[in-house]
Amino acid sequence: MDAETDATASLLTAAGWKQRLVFWSGAILVGLFISALTLLSEQAVVHLRAFFDRTPAGIWLISPLGLVLTVWLTERWFPGAERSGVPQVKAALAIHRDLTLRQRFVSFPIAVGKVALTNLGLLTGASAGLGGPAIQIGASIITTLGRAARFPLHYLERGFILAGSAAGFAALFSAPLAGIIFAIEELGREMEEKISSLVLTAIIFAGMTAYVILNHYIFLEAAEVTQPQGRAWLSIGYCGIAGGLAGGLFAFLLVRLGQRLSRAGRRTRWALIVLFGLLLAALATLSGGRTLGTGYPMLKQIVNASQAASLWFPLEKALATLITALSGVPAGLFVPSLSVGAGLGADLHHWLPLAPLQTMVLLSMCAYFSGMLQNPMTAFVLVMEITDTHELLLPLMATSFVATGTARLLNPRSLYEILTENYVRNLPQQA
């Protein structure tokens, strides 16, 4: 029986419809989880900022103690939920046939822990994004339900992980195209026809669920921008090189410092986590609270041109994000990095205004993101989708590739590729 005949036959069987209903339910559940992650994070940031405004000195107690508590809870009850989540998903894709071993990285408890602990980290003053957690949550939920429903191994090996990851990404950012591109560019360099249909279906169901609950399609309303004209085209190289170097330097430091930290003894490591908490408190105090949380409020203000950012904001936010990532708390990099890139664009415009402010802000967002992850297609599609600025497609595309090329001067290999090796290296040898 060929593939087409097999697919037609499955439409007429109870088992086939059972599998579809389970998969659709899983995609809807991903949308619910991502909505909960988003709504809780908004409240966490609001409450922490209110506390900081009332009692600024309190952050010096909350950050170190809260960081230690979050890391301890993660390691004690939710191992595998630490840090971003993207390297864990990539490590899960490297595991073949041993579905029990794969549960170290994608499981329902990890999805629950990721929601709770990412928000706990935000309450401690961490610079925590939601992108990585959303990807791991999506992969965990759909893979768990697929395994419970006894889907064919072909789907469980790669299809459900890719579908869940793309669904989580797309539901968070309201960016279905970027979700598909990310699944191809970062997680699966090539996708079969069956897997592609799974990804599309998961994105539709998860995205619509998140849309109904969160009531927004455009993740980030941008001020009006125009296509660069004449001399303004020079901003592509300017923003691309500067953003690529900045993003590449962030990735370089995260990898090198992370490697040193992994060799530290247990007592030294816990002492460093306390120090990281104190550093986060210092950055929050020096910046007036600008480094707290995901960075989305500042990102929104910069992109909307509703408030001028401090020239120090990109450095402050990048340092807070680096410290958070090194601490090991569940936290993503995407939204904080977009805010760093936006602030960098405002700074670049202040120093050399080659193009309108908002054009340089969006180009630098794309450049920093590309430089950090070396995923140029994901970067320009994501920025274009979340800001609804399709007229900047060509400049964003060119900037992302300039930035990626620049970043590779510092890091010949991508950030997530290196971080994934740390997980794969410790796996038992598979037959």
Automatic annotation (TrEMBL):
One of its GO terms (molecular function) is chloride channel activity. It holds the Pfam family Voltage_CLC. One of its GO terms (cellular component) is chloride channel complex. The chain crosses the membrane at residues 21-45, 57-74, 160-184, 196-220, 232-258, 270-289, 319-344, 351-372. It is found in: Membrane. The keyword Chloroplast does not apply. It is a multi-pass membrane protein. The keyword Transmembrane helix applies. Keywords: Chloride, Chloride channel, Ion channel, Ion transport, Membrane, Transmembrane, Transmembrane helix, Transport. PANTHER family: CHLORIDE CHANNEL PROTEIN CLC-E. This is Chloride channel protein. It comes from Methylomarinovum caldicuralii.
